[in-house]
Design a protein that fits this description.
mainly alpha, Amino acid/polyamine transporter I, single chain
Length: 402
């Protein structure tokens, strides 16, 4: 096990907890198929990213820079991906900071806008000092504990009579009225574009050139598949607890205190405090890692040195952190802000995925390990479906669709 767990830890943040809770509360198990699609898509795309890193010893940003012969097309592709990553991570960061803030609001009663400022400043100090690695381990441990509690609660609340609805929701694609944004958000919070950059770079540390390529690829595929399936189980458990607690009651989730009610079958009166601490930990962890991932991706795409202390590297993570903090402070409905932030990532996903497919078909870079026909067909299906949902979401936001 290695970088796959890093990918899972990156997407099990406040965005996933909130979006999955809202999905379960508003649609029951009806859009469970979107999670199934997301997990399959994540495994396939992350496997490609990991294969790129193991075989070529390059990250996705570096490979993209040399993929197109025409300099104008090459730079246009690089700029487009950088914009997608920066904008997507800024949106993701908004959800991270908002999640941490509403967790702290539940514990203190102080406005989440105040906490959003404090969380943003704390994340800046941790990143600027390099001390984030110490606190990150503690926070990740809290997120793991919260995940286990969700799974145990789901086991308690799922009834035998729910099984037919679960199976139907998992295999029959349908979008209940008003649930399109939630579907796209569920995909955007699972298939995270910056994880494609993160994975290609991290596998090179786990499996250096001294490890035979085929052995490294086999181990990487196992790592990726098991880790992401674990993340899928956790997300499904959150949906199940949300459905059991709220579906059919007409309740609209607007704060962390409400979401905490779904853990009461296991934790009783302690659910509120446990959930708040877990949501804060998930938000704070992701608030630190998302800006860093954006900086690594941008540096790779532009050919900059990945130096944590370089001015350009710091400028990227600072912009992502600053934009995320400002949007979190300005947000009027924290839960809605988190869901829309994940939806923004879902809309941007096809852009990064298309360029990944271009890179994965380079025989000069990957040789016999480039994508085959089956891999390309599956990749194109993922891109087209995600693009279809993304376009519908944009049209909905513009008022073109009712």
């Amino acid at each position: 096990m290695g970088p796959g767990l890093l990918v899972t830890a990156a997407f099990i943040g406040p965005g996933t907890v909130t979006t999955a809770s809202v999905a379960g509360a508003s649609t029951g198990y009806a859009i469970l198929w979107a999670l199934v699609f997301s997990i399959i898509a994540t495994i396939i795309l992350q496997e490609m990213s990991a294969r790129l890193g193991v075989v070529s010893r390059e990250g996705l940003g570096e490979a993209l820079r040399t993929t197109f012969n025409n300099p104008a097309i090459s730079w246009a592709a690089v700029v487009l991906v950088i914009l997608a990553i920066t904008f997507g991570n800024a949106a993701f960061e908004t959800g991270n900071i908002t999640g941490a803030a509403i967790g702290l609001e539940t514990l203190s009663g102080i406005s989440p806008r105040v906490w959003a400022v404090i969380v943003g400043i704390a994340a800046f100090l941790f990143l600027a000092s390099g001390a984030y690695k110490v606190i990150e381990r503690v926070l990740i441990a809290l997120v793991v504990v919260m995940s286990v509690v969700f799974i145990l609660t789901a086991i308690i609340v799922i009834r035998p009579s729910d099984v037919p609805d679960i199976l139907a929701g998992a295999v029959v694609p349908r979008i209940p009225e008003g649930a399109l944004i939630t579907v796209v958000a569920l995909i955007g919070t699972t298939v995270v574009p910056y994880n494609l950059f993160l994975h290609a770079s991290s596998v090179q540390e786990k499996w250096p050139e001294s490890v035979p390529t085929r052995e490294a690829l086999a181990e990487s595929r196992i790592d990726t598949t098991i880790s992401i399936l674990l993340g899928g189980v956790i997300t499904a458990a959150i949906m199940a607890t949300g459905a059991a607690a709220f579906f059919g009651t007409g309740t609209e989730i607007t704060d962390a205190g409400q979401m905490a009610e779904q853990l009461e079958p296991l934790l009783g009166a302690f659910a509120k405090y446990f959930f708040a601490i877990g949501l804060f930990a998930a938000g704070m962890t992701s608030a630190i890692t998302a800006p860093l991932a954006a900086a690594y991706a941008t540096s790779g795409a532009l050919g900059w040195e990945n130096n944590l202390r370089s001015t350009r590297f710091r400028a990227v993570w600072f912009i992502v952190l600053a934009v995320g903090t400002v949007l979190a402070v300005l947000g009027t409905n924290p839960v809605a802000a988190i869901v829309f932030a994940q939806a923004a990532n879902g809309v941007l996903l096809p852009i990064v995925a298309v360029f990944l497919l271009f890179v994965m078909n380079r025989s000069d870079l990957l040789g016999e390990f480039r994508n085959g026909t089956v891999g390309n067909v599956i990749g194109v299906i993922i891109v087209l479906f995600a693009a279809f949902l993304g376009v519908r979401t944009i049209l909905l936001a513009l008022g073109v669709l009712g």
